[in-house]
Design goal:
The protein has 236 residues and is of the alpha+beta class. It has 2 helices and 17 strands. It starts with a helix and ends in a 7-residue tail after the last strand.
């Protein structure tokens, strides 16, 4: 012990102060580390408490299956071409239900072409190469398939054009004997005829309360005659 004191007496004052400072730092360093860890833990818990609870997105392919079979009451427009939007009205469609299948003119409609699917309305894009005079079909899980009345599909090569002026439905550029079927909410009626070359052909005169839901033209071979329309004339 005496030798230790003798060595300390031989040290300079700056050296003694340095040693004392170092010992002080070493002695309180564990305390500082403990305090820092506690603050870090407190901040972490605060962030956890402040962070909002994540909300799981509802997968549009996982909707509930309706308890009743779907029913289609109306499809409009009832005439269109590939790429056009079509609206299906009815009930018991569900909301993007599981195990659903929508086809237009016998062509399956992919999910990417469906912009809206509610329990009473579906909006989709007409796919490529639909069957002329085909229907729109909807099947959900094991329910019976719902089917629309026949629809007309055309492309830019269609020469026949239908017009509606007041209650009169006429066709331009018909060149062969035809059968025309008018579908309304009250049922359907049929007319046949042979067009006069170069003249407009009178097809139907609507009666009070008749709401057009579709018009199908066929020739003598029962092949559908595609046609186009002016949407504003028919209220689209």
């Amino acid at each position: 012990m005496n030798k230790l004191f003798e060595k300390l007496n031989q040290l300079s004052v700056p050296t003694i102060l340095f040693i004392a400072s170092s010992l002080t730092i070493v002695s309180i360093l564990p305390f500082w580390i403990y305090i820092a860890n506690q603050k870090t833990n407190i901040r972490s818990k605060a962030v956890e408490l402040a962070a909002p609870t994540p909300t799981l997105a509802i997968n549009p392919t996982d909707g509930l299956i309706p308890t009743q079979p779907p029913t289609i009451t109306r499809v409009y427009p009832w005439v269109g071409k590939t790429g056009d939007s079509i609206v299906i009205e009815g009930k018991n469609f569900g909301v993007y239900p599981k195990n659903r299948r929508l086809a237009i003119g016998d062509i399956l409609v992919p999910d990417a072409s469906v912009s809206l699917w509610t329990d009473t309305q579906i909006e989709a894009i007409i796919p490529s190469n639909p069957k002329q005079g085909g229907t729109l079909t909807l099947r959900i899980d094991t329910h019976p398939m719902a089917e629309s009345i026949p629809l007309t599909f055309y492309d830019q090569t269609a020469t026949v054009r239908l017009h509606k002026t007041g209650t009169s439905i006429t066709a331009n550029n018909l060149t062969e004997p035809y059968t025309a079927v008018l579908y309304t909410k009250n049922g359907q009626r049929t007319t046949t005829g042979t067009p006069t070359q170069g003249a407009s052909t009178q097809l139907f005169t609507l009666t009070s309360g008749e709401d057009i839901q579709s018009i199908i033209l066929t020739n003598q071979k029962q092949t559908v005659i595609p046609y186009s329309i002016n949407p504003t004339e028919f209220g689209f």
